[in-house]
Design goal:
Largest sheet: 5 strands, parallel
Keywords: ATP-binding, Kinase, Nucleotide biosynthesis, Nucleotide-binding, Transferase
EC number: 2.7.4.9
Number of domains: 1
Number of helices: 8
CATH architecture: 3-Layer(aba) Sandwich
Strand content: 5-15%
CATH superfamily: P-loop containing nucleotide triphosphate hydrolases
Distance between the termini: 48 Å
Order of helices and strands: EHEHHEHHEHHEH
Pathway: Pyrimidine metabolism; dTTP biosynthesis
InterPro entries: P-loop_NTPase, Thymidylate_kin-like_dom, Thymidylate_kin_CS, Thymidylate_kinase
Organism: Phlebiopsis gigantea (strain 11061_1 CR5-6)
Number of strands: 5
Low-confidence stretches: 223-234
Mean pLDDT: 87
CATH class: Alpha Beta
Length: 234
């Protein structure tokens, strides 16, 4: 079986440096003569992506269930092309993926309540079952104090500290269930300088990007029971 490309996902809270690190990793791979491509979710250029962009900029209001399904649909728009690229030997870097969709949606709370999620964790997970599964997810963990000091913080709908705190809690729960149904999950301290984070990222993926012998897995296609996210807030 010929070696396929590696599927690398970079996740994290807002202003954790995901886009910067994804772009830097892409350049580093290309400099090393490794075929690679960067995809950023949501992709705001498609018809679905434009609806998402308008929502994130608070230019329109949508039902929360609808929003979650739009984000998932945006990923499915690229699923076949991602798989094709990986099988051809090209490495794919994703700036956000299904884990962000799950974390942001399952962290929403009912109006006037701080103890009960608006959308059920399992309901949020189901639309992404069967997407290509990443070989590794790099979670850039940034503290609230550092994120607040970074440019542009608070410009979009979800960039509020209470929201980011709940989102991080759900990411922790997701990380506990990823192994075996979504590849490796590595936490990286994003409070460090860009250069320091860049070196950790490179060291973590260096062996993987040489090529992958294992077949591409499907996301969440492992038949495991996942704990309901309500337990995070009890």
């Amino acid at each position: 079986m010929p070696r396929r490309g590696a599927f690398i996902v970079i996740e994290g809270l807002d202003r954790s440096g995901k886009s910067t690190q994804a772009a830097t990793l892409l350049r580093r791979l290309q400099d090393a003569q490794i075929s690679a491509k960067l995809i950023k979710f949501p992709d705001r250029t498609t018809p679905i992506g434009k609806m998402i962009d308008s929502y994130l900029r608070s230019e329109n209001e949508l039902d929360d269930h609808t929003v979650h399904l739009l984000f998932s649909a945006n990923r499915w728009e690229f699923a076949s092309s991602i798989e094709k690229s990986l099988q051809s030997g090209e490495t794919i870097i994703c700036d956000r993926y299904a884990f962000s969709g799950l974390a942001f949606s399952a962290s929403k709370i009912r109006p006037g309540s701080q103890s009960y999620p608006l959308l059920d964790y399992e309901w949020c997970r189901v639309p992404d079952i069967g997407l290509p599964a990443p070989d590794i997810t790099l979670f850039l963990d940034v503290s609230a104090d550092v994120a607040r000091k970074r440019g542009g913080y608070g410009e979009e709908r979800y960039e509020k500290e209470d929201v980011q705190r709940r989102v991080r809690d759900v990411f922790v729960r997701i990380s506990e269930h990823v192994q075996g149904g979504g590849g490796r999950w590595e936490v990286i301290d994003a409070d460090e300088t860009q250069e320091e984070v860049q070196e950790v990222v490179w060291k973590t993926v260096q062996e993987l990007v040489a090529g992958v012998d294992a077949p591409l897995e499907k996301l969440w296609d492992d038949k495991r029971e996942v704990t309901n996210v309500e337990t995070l807030y009890m």
